[in-house]
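TA notes, week 10

Several of you asked for a full example with nothing omitted. So below is the full record: structure tokens for the whole chain, then the designed sequence directly under it. When grading your own attempts, check the secondary structure regions first.
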């Protein structure tokens, strides 16, 4: 009897085990099926949403375009495709073009009046923009500053360059030097487009190519890729900066880098330690060098007792909100157009 009871008990336990195991298998299979269907639906929804919402548009090339008042022959397929390339690159290289807008708001008001004073077309501010991004960079070849001037021509056009001072880092003086170069180039070529192209390849280089290829226009030259793209990079920057919304750029006033407010101190003596000099003028060494990057050492011997203009920020220069408040109407309320008045920054703030 006990043996029979034991066998029955074991049978029932075994049956329950198998039943439970089968039930678990059914549940697992059902869950896997549901997960698979759900995952497939999620993927389909994602793909549908991606295709409905993510869009890249081809850039429209302007019907008419000019550089420094000189018409660009966009009817030629070659030039149409060159400007199309640069507009596409700069529109979809959003981080770089956004920084162009931000920096231009600070530095174009410094550059514009100098170009105007020297009779250089306003469009040449875009040349500085594409050369350096309006930063004091140094190229592998040694070209330096906003205008990317090499040492020899920079000295030719009046800049001081030595171990203690490098005026290629001085935006006002380097802009003046660039104006002198451009005037010389214009006198040689008789048009601003070729003068601008020569900024990349040199006056002699441009002359040689014009003579060799027996043409008299930049647009008729077969050139290396860098110089063949050069004018069109400037033109693309001009299009995007002057019509930002058309290329998808919406920047608020508070997004832009406000112009600096500075006052000037004359320096005509030696300075043994610019750290102490900065402290005596209520700033630190970092701020002194930030506003006067043309000072290349922590001292200056100034044996000739030359007169240098030191720029220092007005009180409150570290307060971004105050800088915005002092930015007198240089941008419209909601979005920014870089075609702005340059009168405000032509005057130094009072100390």
């Amino acid at each position: 009897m006990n043996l029979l009871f034991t066998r029955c008990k074991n049978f029932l336990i075994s049956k329950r085990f198998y039943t439970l195991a089968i039930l678990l298998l059914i549940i697992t299979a059902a869950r896997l099926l549901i997960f698979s269907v759900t995952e497939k639906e999620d993927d389909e929804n994602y793909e549908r949403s991606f295709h409905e919402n993510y869009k890249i548009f081809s850039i429209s090339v302007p019907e008419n375009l000019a550089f420094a008042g000189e018409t660009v022959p966009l009817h030629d397929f070659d030039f149409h495709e060159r400007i199309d390339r640069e507009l596409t690159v700069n529109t979809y290289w959003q981080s770089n073009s956004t920084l162009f807008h931000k920096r231009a708001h600070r530095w174009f008001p410094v550059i514009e009046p100098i170009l105007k004073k020297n009779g250089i077309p306003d469009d040449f501010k875009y040349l500085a923009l594409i050369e350096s991004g309006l930063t004091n960079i140094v190229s592998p070849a040694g070209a330096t500053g906003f205008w990317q001037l090499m040492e020899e021509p920079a000295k030719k056009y009046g800049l001081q360059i030595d171990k203690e001072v490098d005026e290629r880092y001085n935006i006002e003086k380097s802009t003046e030097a660039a104006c002198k170069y451009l005037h010389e180039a214009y006198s040689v070529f008789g048009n601003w487009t070729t003068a601008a192209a020569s900024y990349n390849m040199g006056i002699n280089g441009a002359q040689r190519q014009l003579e060799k290829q027996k043409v008299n226009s930049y647009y008729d030259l077969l050139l290396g890729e860098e110089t063949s793209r050069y004018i069109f990079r400037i033109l693309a920057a001009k299009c995007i900066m002057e019509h930002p919304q058309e290329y998808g750029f919406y920047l608020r006033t508070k997004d832009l880098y406000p112009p600096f407010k500075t006052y000037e101190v004359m320096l005509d003596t030696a300075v043994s330690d610019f750290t102490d000099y900065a402290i005596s003028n209520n700033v630190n060494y970092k701020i002194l060098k930030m506003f006067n990057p043309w000072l290349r050492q922590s001292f200056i011997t100034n044996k000739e007792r030359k007169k240098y203009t030191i720029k220092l920020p007005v009180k409150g220069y570290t307060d971004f909100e105050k800088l915005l408040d002092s930015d007198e109407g240089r941008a419209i309320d909601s979005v920014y157009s870089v075609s702005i008045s340059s009168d405000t920054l032509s005057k130094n703030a009072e100390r």
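The beta strands are 66-67, 70-71, 262-267, 308-313. Use that as a sanity check on your answer.
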